[in-house]
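My current task is to audit a protein record that another person submitted. What it holds is a sequence and that sequence's fold in token form. Thanks in advance; the entry in question is below.
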Amino acid sequence: MIGIVNYNIGNLASVINAFTKLGINAQIQSDPEKIGQYDKLLLPGVGAFGDAMEHLKSNGMDKAILEFANSGKPLLGICLGMQLLFECSEEFGSHKGLGLIDGTVVKFDEAKFDHPLKVPHMGWNEMFVQRDTPIFDELPKDFYLYFVHSYHVVCDDKYAIGKTHYGYEFVSAVQFENIYGIQPHPEKSHDNGLKILTNFAKL
């Protein structure tokens, strides 16, 4: 059973609908005391980093997620949920994250773009696989997914399992042991995204 963290900030309906379509057992959970009962945990998220962390802390969900990650069971963060896995974010000030992976979340630096582009980065773009990882099983070395974000992760390449180019190259998917993160929305990315969710369920 996959638990989907409900902390009042995220597009839960599209995530649970994707798992339902795949015939995979998943459950939205807002009680931190029940997080440990799941085999796998998915941390979604849409919105601002600071607000998201406040919601997680308000009832101890942040500690429940950390305990789950430390148990060795698979954890997947998507979009803002991926960013929350890191140490801190520069979105609207400085905010501490869950600190499960070393790195910082920064805004797209338009001064570094190789040609003029709009921020947020919105729409279909390529994921370039950096190394073998089970959540990309049976997918090609580059494939398209759907993105919506203004901030991205800066971290050591040893964590990067996927990169994307938007004005410049940035890390768009990460893995550290049992912890996974993906910046685009697999639940909105048709067959490629559904394959990622299927692979996560098989971990």
User: Anything to note?
Assistant: The chain has one domain: 2-202. The first helix runs from residue 12 to 22.
